[in-house]
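A further point concerns the way the authors explain their paired sequence and structure data. Each protein is reduced to its one-letter sequence and a matching series of backbone shape codes. An entry of this sort, consisting of the sequence and the corresponding backbone structure tokens, reads as follows:
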Amino acid sequence: MRIGLDAHILGKGKGGVERVVHQMVRLLPGLLPSHEFVVFVNKSYQPLFPARPNLRYVRLAVAEPIVQRSVLLPWLAQREQLDLLHVQSAAPPFIRSRLVVHTHDLLPLTAPRDHAGLRDRLVRQLTPGTLRRADGVLTVSESVAGEIRALFPFTARKLTSIPNGIEGDFFQPRPADAPRAPIHTRFGLGSEYLLYIGAFAARKNLEVAIRGFGRFLRDPAHAAARQGVKLVLAGMCRSQSYLDNLHRLAAEVAPGAVVFTGFISDRECLELLQHARIFLAPSRGEGFDLPPLEAMSCAIPVICSDLPVHHELLEDDALYFRSDQPDGLAAAMSRLDTDPGLHRQLSRRGPPRAARFTWENTMSRMADFYHTVFPSRLSFASRHDVS
């Protein structure tokens, strides 16, 4: 069987979805070695994996996603004689092969105030038809699956939730003798800092994170002891005006105590995680959420917003606060800061919690899902054959 993978997002630095697609390309051909994979990528993308006999790349001549979806993918799917096409989020309008749609979240529909751009408006318009045309619908958490079933009941029989994974071999607790890294020197970070890693966007709720941190610093009972503590916000921001607003807020409520790193490499991400005191996941909306699991894998306690997906993934191994309450966030910070026993307990419970989420398991389940969409054409490699 010939399987097409929509991988146009590779190389764009678009966060969690790109990481899922990266792992699909890395692992699925090994799980289904008797089937051919055709991977559709943008023309500037440089493949990162060794050549495989059952995988080849086809470059998309046009980078514009609307043209890719409406013209290129239908034409290429027919030219390549695909039996199954796996796309991210939006499906082509006319497709002859079996179709798997990967719906990572419904946030443009369920939280429109945080998703007001042109792309999000298009997603709102295209999602109903996309889900209706799909032979199989994948999503990344039971929380999102419940939202999809509620809004689109016709998906119930073709919908499966498969959680994402993390790179557990990479995200490891800090070795006892690990020195501080150049990134700590570059940003003047001492031994005490709280950390956020991720995109800078309205739904990430960084304003509440900054306000909560400011109140944590000003707590009269502990203000003296918290001098020099920093909040590190690491990641890219595509809106300069939004970033300027965050800088102004930080200067107002926690002057000199909030560090904006901009883009960081994977190695710097690990170095920041391993030395952090507390990790923050303050978002107002997520389909999944990889960074808090990566922090747990590094044995760093997590404070997160009380989203259903956070409770689903982290259960009782994190502290929670209401996403609209900076005072609640400040209280959770103080609780972890002043209770060494609780800090040790959450540090200890983090790695086994994170170890439940592996990319190998995710992609094995995805290969099984293909079998439900096209049951007569697939045969599977042993799980132990995945490399």
User: Anything to note?
Assistant: The longest strand covers residues 36-42. The chain has two domains: 2-165+358-381, 182-354. The mean pLDDT is 91. The two ends are 21 Å apart (CA to CA).
